[in-house]
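User: Sequence for Celp0028 effector like protein below. Tokens please.
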Amino acid sequence: MLFQTCVALGAVLSLAQAKPTPTVLQYDDVIVAGKDGSVVVMKDYEYELKEARETLQRRKADAARSADQPESHVNHRRCDESVEYQVLSDTNFNDWDVPMSPVIGNIGSTGASVAVSKGYTVADSAYGNNIISRSFLEKLLGVEMPSGGTWTWTTKDDQTFTFQVPQGQYGLVVSNPYVRRVTGNYVSGCVDSPSYEPWQITTHTTQEYTNMQWVAGPIRLCNNTVYPIPYCVGTGTHA
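Assistant: Structure tokens for Celp0028 effector like protein:
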């Protein structure tokens, strides 16, 4: 009896220490991490409506910010020479698919699911940063720029999200990172015949979730009846 009691107690302790089974998400679910560290699972149509509202708000804010940003450093010399940083566009969008799992096919009768199996790294980029004032960029982007003009965000794979692949389809987990891209010209020279040098800044943002640094952007299942799977956002195929 004592032996049976010990075995039963050991089984209870093992169950208590076991990790909870991760929730299996449906093909039309989208994982959205909030700025406060929370995670919300919503349907894809709900996410599209949310994105449409936020895009409209961002455009209004960007238009107001861009109107204030172009700054001109005018140096009156011979031929009225001047220097100006000109902002041409300031846009926000979801980047192309970033694979976070292998492709899984649900072509049998037993069902299939696919889980996040790896993180990814994206690098912010800038060209023309050798001609742009660092203080101007920091004011424009609202962030502190590294001296080299290039920095990297990384999404880790410490958390598992599992999606159910629909019957007769192939699928993989992807992320579509939020991107802000600003383009402009560095205008210099004589006022009557200035020279133009283009510049572009592409940046991502990060957010915290369960002590992980995530690249901001939705995580979802990209699925199709054909293989290789066409990109859900962008051009290309997943194999």
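The chain has three helices and 20 strands.
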